[in-house]
């Protein structure tokens, strides 16, 4: 019985290793095993790897992702005296309010941080990505 179990485990590990090494990566356009040994994993043919092209493709993918992410950002200039809401990092329910405040901005820095007044004499420096501008209710 133990030999059968060991044989099944060995076969399972071998098939998993083969699938991981022979699966073609969408970023690299080749399998990791083929890149490591410069030979195709399924056929016995040599593989000519152009590392410069792979590097350029990866850089292009990273740049596209950055542009896509930056496109969603809204330019907004914070100023002293403005009120902001601070994001709450604790995990709550889906419909729960995830901000608290408002807090007054005491100082604005060029590195993307602001200092907010929490309580009397207590301040905190936070990144502007952790805040949203506070708009007073219309009532």
Description:
By secondary structure, the chain is α+β, with helices and mostly antiparallel strands. The chain has three helices and five strands; from the N terminus they run αααβββββ. It has a five-stranded antiparallel β-sheet, with no helix packed on it. It is elongated and about 75 Å long.
Summarize the structure.
The chain is α+β, with helices and mostly antiparallel strands.
Write the layout of secondary structure elements.
Layout: H1 2-22, H2 32-37, H3 51-71, E1 83-87, E2 99-108, E3 113-119, E4 122-127, E5 131-133
Antiparallel strand pairs: 1-2, 1-5, 2-3, 3-4
What are the salient characteristics of this protein?
139 residues, alpha+beta, SH3 type barrels, 2 domains, 5-stranded antiparallel sheet, 35% helix
Strands of the widest sheet, in order across it, are 4-3-2-1-5
> Order of helices and strands, N to C?
HHHEEEEE
What's the story with the biggest beta sheet? 5 strands, antiparallel
Helix content: 25-40%
């Amino acid at each position: 019985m133990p030999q059968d179990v060991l044989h099944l485990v060995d076969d399972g590990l071998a098939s998993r290793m083969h699938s991981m090494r022979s699966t073609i990566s969408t970023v690299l356009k080749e399998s990791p095993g083929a890149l490591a040994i410069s030979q195709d994993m399924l056929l016995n043919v040599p593989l000519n790897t152009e590392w410069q092209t792979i590097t350029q493709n990866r850089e292009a993918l990273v740049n596209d992702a950055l542009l896509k992410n930056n496109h969603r950002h809204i330019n907004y200039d914070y100023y002293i005296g403005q009120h902001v809401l601070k994001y709450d990092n604790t995990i709550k329910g889906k419909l729960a309010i995830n901000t608290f405040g408002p807090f007054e901005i005491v100082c604005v820095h060029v590195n993307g941080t602001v200092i907010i007044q929490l309580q009397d004499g207590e301040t905190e420096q936070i990144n502007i990505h952790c805040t949203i501008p506070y708009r007073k209710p219309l009532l």
